[in-house]
């Protein structure tokens, strides 16, 4: 702790009186005491617990009398003490202070957007945060740029228990704010077409004129971003959004290896799919210890741990199921990925062509953003001898790189009524090419290869019967399997 700060603060607050020219003692008012302490608000977290207690003794009488500024500073001091009882007192004081002290109203709004350590009874509430932010705009007229920016962000994204996503309101709030991050997100809306007519040129101009680091980085990397929703057929979306029958599996019967897809929707919830990532998960039931363990392979990462399966819920109580995926909107040079923490999967079972398909609604958060993860699902089925993704090596970096380095070129992609796969090699024989949807149904299979020359092989596939959607092209050669994702618009 900085001794200069402490000594200076002590001199200010321990002088409860000062003298006029007539040497008459004059006691500081509650407002003066609060203002004196608020000057040191940025340093509160550096003070010792003992000193925090002394400051509380000094300001508590004013807070009890109902002075809003004193209630605000007392609330902050209670939170620094980190005791659950004091956290509760601090939150009640903050609510009271917010009725007459504008900084307390802003603090209350931001508090509703995050969890509080050592205070498990506090719950995130986006509607309450929104109400407080709207009060800042009218009638308070206090820090309206911040309020409009945060309200725009909340209306644009669809968090659990948040407001219904409303792109028109988000656009209006962003346009009403001069906060640079409001301009940043408004540009993103135009670039990706969220609730507005997509206009990449306008978005680029807005980012170029927005003099902040985030916009500068995003403008540099925009060409590498995924700017379109992944197309999915009506059948695929219907199955994804249909819960199906109750989940009747037990830990013992759920034992086995499953292949599936991690599906992340845009904030429009069930309309736009922004991410479709294959994964494999192995559940292992130990009869003697009565433990259910898992091993998840996704995006070239492998994670393992213990879990519980009960009443259709897979729970990760001891520690969340965590994995990292690339950022969809890269606006930090040194932050290429986001950490997804899944706390629970709500499972339902569906039958597709006689096979059980498990659909899991995910609950969790994105640690790097300190906010709930977007609407996301896992869809998977048990691996069998005919399972589509059996022996899939899409997560194997070495084989994936072979495809990416022109080992095999799929063109065009997005595919049309037909597409070609060209192999720049002649060392493989017995080649089979199959196309699956992400539910594991085999839709196309072709083993005949047309030779162009001695070093190049080309396979032409008829995809005219495929609806718009996302597909896996699987190539088997000499007992090795390669996979690549394609889309059809």
UniProtKB/TrEMBL annotation:
Q: What residue stretch is flagged as signal peptide?
A: 1-22
Q: Pfam families in the record, alphabetically?
A: Por_Secre_tail
Ranges for domain Secretion system C-terminal sorting come to: 410-486
Q: Record's InterPro entries?
A: Secre_tail (IPR026444), Sel1-like (IPR006597), TPR-like_helical_dom_sf (IPR011990)
* Keywords annotated in UniProt: Signal
The name of this protein is T9SS type A sorting domain-containing protein
Q: What is the organism of origin for this protein?
A: Aquimarina algicola
